[in-house]
Write a structure and sequence with these properties.
The chain is mainly alpha-helical and 278 residues long. The protein has a domain at 60-221: Orthogonal Bundle (MetI-like fold), CATH 1.10.3720.10. It has 12 helices and no strands. Helix 3 (43-52) crosses helix 12 (244-277). The mean pLDDT is 86.
Length: 278
């Protein structure tokens, strides 16, 4: 009977190993290769690809800068939410709930066409004495580029979600570790830097990486402000050539290459960190 159970378990294990084989990746790779051959063999697709690919650098720039700023702000908001001060906790909760409750496209439009002009007016009001003294010049709305309005929107919108990732990761650390660090006489900053954060980062990295992949996709929203990313370059070409099917097929192909490559890299990093933990 034991031999039968072992054989059944072995069969299930081998079946699970076959099911875990990344057939989807093989299919995606075959599709990517076929698409690459089609682009290379067609003058039309080659031209569209060359045009749309001009926006890859802008997409990567917006995603990286936005992610770094959003992570920095998100970490600060997470620390506020874990603070001993009720006022800091309430401010952090207010920020998170408001930013998460507004659709990203609406937030983008609000910051670009309402928030930035309001900030410029406030800045000019506060710096009026300095402007009269000739120390600073008047700030105009057009001085704030649409690119940076888009990056500010990405920072504010995503920092609320990233703050929750940091908060959950920090709270996952065993309180006994913190108490042991306190017994050793470590300061609050030393406990966070040497004990809490190195352990929390293992929990934080996977969802943080997923947010980065999502940000790469959502960076396409900046095209509504005329930022020359992948989507905007596709919009410009298709509007002039009326080749909508071919153009947006290339746009989707490039985004898939970026996001799937990032997802695979993040999974490899996650497996490596799990191996180190063991």
């Amino acid at each position: 009977m034991a031999l039968i159970d072992l054989s059944v378990t072995a069969k299930r294990g081998s079946r699970g190993a076959r099911e875990d084989f990344p057939y989807w990746l093989v299919a995606a790779g075959a599709l990517a290769l076929a698409s690459a051959l089609a682009i290379w063999s067609s003058d039309l697709y080659s031209l569209i690809f060359a045009t749309v690919a001009q926006g890859i650098g802008m997409t990567i720039y917006v995603s990286i800068v936005g992610f770094v700023l959003a992570s920095t702000v998100g970490l600060g908001v997470a620390l506020m939410s874990l603070s001993g001060s009720i006022w800091l906790r309430q401010i952090a909760r207010f920020y998170v709930e408001i930013c998460r409750g507004v659709p990203f496209l609406v937030l983008l439009f609000w910051i670009a066409f309402a928030g930035v002009p309001a900030f410029v007016s406030f800045w000019n009001f506060v710096t009026a004495p300095l402007r009269d003294a000739g120390i600073v010049d008047e700030l105009l709305v057009r001085d704030v580029s649409l690119l940076w309005r888009a990056i500010i929107a990405i920072t504010i919108g995503y920092s609320a979600f990233i703050a929750e990732v940091f908060r959950a990761g920090i709270q996952s650390v065993d309180t006994g570790q913190v108490e042991a660090a306190m017994a050793l006489g470590l300061s609050r900053w030393q406990r966070f830097r040497l004990v809490v954060f190195p352990q929390a980062i293992r929990t934080i990295l996977p969802p943080l990486g997923n947010d980065f992949v999502t940000m790469v996709k959502d960076s396409s929203f900046v095209s509504v402000l005329g930022v020359a990313d992948i989507t905007q370059m596709g919009k410009i070409y298709s509007a002039g050539s009326f080749r909508f099917f071919e153009t947006y097929s290339i746009v989707a192909y490039i985004y898939l290459l970026l996001t799937i490559s990032l997802s695979l890299a993040l999974r490899a990093l996650e497996r490596r960190m799990r191996g180190r933990k063991r």
